[in-house]
Design brief:
The complex is a heterodimer. By secondary structure, chain A is an alpha/beta fold. Chain A has 21 helices and 20 strands. In chain A, helix 11 crosses helix 18. Chain A starts with 10 loop residues before the first strand and ends in an 8-residue tail after the last helix. Chain B has 13 helices and two strands. Chain B is globular. Classes of the chains: A alpha/beta, B mainly alpha.
């Protein structure tokens, strides 16, 4: 490193300590954080929720709310301390020298102002010598540079008329408007689909090469770190546990926590493609699934369309969008079936219809001998309860006012009425199996960790003794280290009970680890399906290949 | 073609509203009492006089026949003649309209910018002394009765200091065939106290809305992003926060403005301001059915029009609502 910056580093953070004060309670947030950032360097800061990684970014930007107090250390930019500057001085740095990209591209742009105007106002603010016309030209130029097609025409469009990836490109254009030295990118791709994530990361890399800007990339995702960063800072509980070149961190992690983080990243295995693929291509997969003559669940011809929420009296109501188009699957008894798709692919809608939480105007679901009318509510058709669901975010899927014991008890009683199994549910055994201490029964959800809450959700689903479990992204709201535990636990308990599960996810690696067959959803249709091995090794579907290729190379083997 | 269907839908709704309103108003006035006793001189009238008056007013007919006759007249643009003033009812309402319209407009011109501005500042600095004072003041302004507020304004602004007149419209000037106070200095002077009496509760209401909206919007990512891209707080407040909070504010401005046109009766009475609200209450007391019905119809039409304007404003403001061309 010393070879790289002969002169003073662009940014130097030394022994930074911060605490959060609310009322009389003070919580330490950061302690003794030190690092340097060189010109043209991409520094990754990785850590799980609560590690304080975003706080570091906000401290550099000077955007901390007043409850945060600096207790020690300095932040030097170009050799000059900036943490003691007045609010006005900090504001003149923002945009011009240090700018930012935030996670949520939907929320980062003002919905009521055209995209061009938002870029233009930034140019005008940061360079007061510009005329309105010059600012406009520069804005169009910036939009073109971040890869917005037809920037002159798109200039007048509003944020909602852009896709997620394009919105994030606009945000990047705004961050570049003042030709800053540093861009703080806080989870810039976490809200994007895998294929788009890859393109945005590539754009950032190109911009670093072209403009020499430095980037601090805050993320929880090792995949993102492995793709573009030069150096990495691993943070935990407000402290830096390890800092080194990215390759070193990935290959020879020293700290146990780093090792744990790395081990927890799900890896995608891509078996080498065999020549045999020629003779049993695409149809091999479908016949393998159709070949099961005794499936537990058959869903046929499910279609559903959403009328976009228009304004009152029909103003602004667009064409109906299809949520699902003629989707059908068969679930073999005692198997785990994966459903993969990007946002808007209809995978969640499908799961909700299976669980009887949503209706579809056309289609049919058969479980065993019993056919269910999916156009009626799950309660009326009897589907509700036979299929249990595990939701994405355990922090919002447990009733905050009920104790864990009450929640699980409710599930046992409800399951006693609708569940298929006649054997009584054994709460104590279930708690033990899922690694939940009995003392949790008297607690409320907010007193539990994220992983514990998701275990409770699993227990809740299992205790209702359903025939089928639908798990909708059950790990994506959890930290990586917890994700692996939950995935393992889910897989084992399902296998032990010989239950049938639908596992919905956007993450190919987790699906590969869990499922025996996979359906790939795209735009409300089944784009590709087959046994897991077939999908990952031999499927010729271009979309499937694109999804697989979008995975960080580092975590594919 | 969606625009046409929107307009047609809106018109048919307005039509149903007018039918319902007229039925309720008609039956309401009918069940309060017999207007004949307010038309004839009770002291001197003979039973024959009363009978003749009843027939002259068409009150001998069954109520449904009276209603149908009324509807028939309305369709041909005639609301009937006031029992009391012996003038066409609709013209009577229109003659009172300028006074109400100018008072309500001035009150809203004071209340809307002041309320929005106070709310923006308070929301921007939530938790500060300014914010807490604003919140407390707005609670009191909303909870004091308007007659008390009006009397206090007269006490302080007219009696103790003598700065403003305590009532009446003052000098008026003619414009578009009507008399307006706001065109003369003296008329404007007369308008200050009643306009304040109408504006103060509205300032409080709008400020509350704008404050809570500001707090919500300032917590959104895009205002944080605006700060990160180097915009000044003033620009963020005016160019980004203000448009984003304006939908509920404009809604409430529309509703309150309609309310002031129709129901500012307390303030109009206290300040002897001859407006529509005062006319409505007087007419109800005198059971002057044609005038009551004409006023109610005007109020209903005004509310429908104001709501349409508010919706139009949504579409202008919010690109997501705009028709895709």
């Amino acid at each position: 490193m010393t070879v790289e910056h002969v002169t003073a580093p662009l940014l130097r953070v030394q022994n930074l300590g911060l605490r959060h004060v609310s009322g009389s309670a003070t919580t330490p947030i950061l302690s003794d954080v030190s690092f340097e950032l060189g010109r043209g360097e991409i520094l990754g800061i990785i850590g799980e929720s609560g590690a304080g990684k975003s706080t570091v970014g906000n401290a550099i930007l000077g955007l901390l709310s007043p409850e945060f107090q600096q207790t020690s250390g300095t932040i030097e930019f170009n050799g000059k301390a900036i943490d003691g500057m007045t609010a006005d001085e900090r504001q003149t740095l923002r945009g011009r020298r240090i700018s930012a990209i935030f996670q949520d591209h939907t929320a980062s742009l003002d919905p009521l102002m055209s995209v061009g105007a938002q870029v233009e106002e930034t140019c005008l603010t940061l360079d007061s010598s510009l005329s309105k016309r010059e600012a406009r030209a520069r804005a169009i130029d910036l939009l073109a540079r971040v890869g917005i097609p037809e920037p002159e025409r798109r200039y007048r469009n509003y944020p909602h008329q852009f896709s997620g990836g394009q919105r994030q490109r606009v945000v990047i254009a705004i961050a570049l408007a003042g030709s800053p030295d540093i861009i703080i990118a806080d989870e810039p791709t976490s809200a994007l689909d895998a294929t788009v994530q890859k393109q945005v990361l590539e754009l950032l890399k190109i911009l670093v090469d072209e403009t020499g800007v430095s980037i601090i990339l805050v993320t929880h995702d090792m995949g993102v770190i492995s793709e573009i960063t030069n150096r990495v800072l691993v943070m935990r509980k407000g402290q830096v546990v390890e800092a080194d070149r990215t390759a070193t961190i990935l290959d020879q992690p020293r700290h146990d926590y780093t090792k744990k983080l790395l081990a927890a990243v799900p890896r995608l295995r891509i078996p080498t493609r065999t020549v045999k693929a020629e003779d049993d291509g695409g149809q091999a997969g479908s016949s393998a699934i159709d070949g099961d003559q005794n499936p537990l669940l058959v869903a046929e011809g499910l279609s559903k369309q959403f009328a976009p929420q228009g304004f009152a009296w029909g103003i602004g109501r667009g064409k109906p969008r299809f949520g699902l188009r003629d989707v059908g699957i068969r679930l073999p008894r005692g198997s785990i079936t994966g459903i993969v798709g990007e946002s808007g692919s209809g995978k969640t809608t499908f799961g909700r219809i299976l669980a009887g939480l949503d209706t579809a105007p056309t289609g049919r679901i058969t479980i065993g001998e019993h056919a269910f009318n999916v156009s009626r509510s799950g309660r009326r058709s009897g589907l509700l309860g036979r299929v249990q669901m595990i939701f994405q975010d355990p922090s919002v899927s447990l009733n905050p006012r009920m104790t864990i014991g009450e929640t699980l008890d409710e599930s046992i009683r409800f399951g006693g009425r609708t569940g298929s199994s006649k054997e009584p549910a054994d709460l104590a055994a279930m708690m033990d199996r899922l690694g939940l201490p009995r003392s949790l029964l008297a607690r409320h959800p907010h007193q539990l960790s994220g992983g514990q809450k998701q275990r409770v959700c699993i227990a809740r689903a299992l205790l209702a003794r359903p025939e089928i479990i639908v798990a909708d992204e059950p790990t994506s709201a959890l930290d990586v280290s917890v994700q692996a535990e939950i995935v393992g636990l889910l897989k084992d308990t399902i296998a032990e009970r010989a239950m049938t599960m639908v596992f919905i996810s956007h993450d190919l690696a987790i699906v590969q680890a869990m499922c025996s067959s996979v359906f790939i959803f795209k735009d409300g249709r089944i784009e590709d399906f087959g046994p897991t091995e077939f999908i990952f090794s031999r499927s010729d579907n271009p979309y499937t290949r694109a999804l697989i290729n979008a995975r960080p190379q580092r975590f594919t083997c | 073609m969606p625009l046409i269907s929107v307009v047609l839908g809106r018109l048919s709704q307005a039509f149903l509203l007018l039918i319902a309103m007229s039925l309720i108003g008609f039956i309401g006035v009918h069940s309060v009492g017999n207007p004949v006793f307010n038309v004839v001189n009770i002291e001197t009238a003979t039973p024959e006089d009363i009978h003749a008056a009843t027939i002259a007013l068409g009150l001998d007919q069954p109520i449904w026949r009276q209603y149908l006759a009324f509807i028939g007249n309305v369709v041909s643009g005639n609301f009937g003649t006031s029992y009391i003033y012996h003038l066409p009812a609709f013209e009577l309402v229109m003659s009172k309209l300028p006074a109400t319209l100018e008072l309500a407009s001035i009150a809203m011109l004071i209340a809307a910018p002041l309320g929005t501005g106070l709310g923006l500042l308070a929301g921007r600095r939530s938790g500060t002394l300014f914010d807490r004072t604003m919140v407390k003041a707005s609670v009191s302004a909303l909870s004091i009765p308007s007659f008390w507020l009006a009397m206090m304004l007269i006490l302080v602004g007219a009696i103790l200091t003598g700065w403003f007149p305590s009532g009446g419209r003052g000098l008026t000037a003619s414009f578009l065939g009507q008399e307006w106070s706001f065109l003369t200095g003296n008329g404007l002077w007369h308008m200050v106290l009643p306009a304040l009496a109408l504006a103060i509760p509205n300032i409080a209401l709008i400020a509350r809305l704008s404050r809570s909206g500001t707090i919500e919007v300032e917590n959104l990512d895009f205002t944080r992003f605006c700060r990160a891209k180097g915009l000044s707080s003033r620009r963020i407040l005016l160019r980004h926060t203000l448009p984003n909070i304006s939908v509920p504010i404009v809604t409430i401005i529309g509703l309150q403005f309609g309310g002031m046109l129709a129901f500012a009766v307390v303030v109009e009475t206290i300040f002897s301001w001859p407006g529509v609200g005062k006319l409505l209450i007087d007419s109800i007391q005198l059971l002057d059915r044609p005038v009551v019905m004409a006023t109610l119809t005007f109020i209903a039409v005004a509310f429908v029009a104001l709501n349409a304007l508010v919706d139009l404003f949504y579409a202008v403001l919010d690109p997501r609502v705009r028709l895709s061309s």
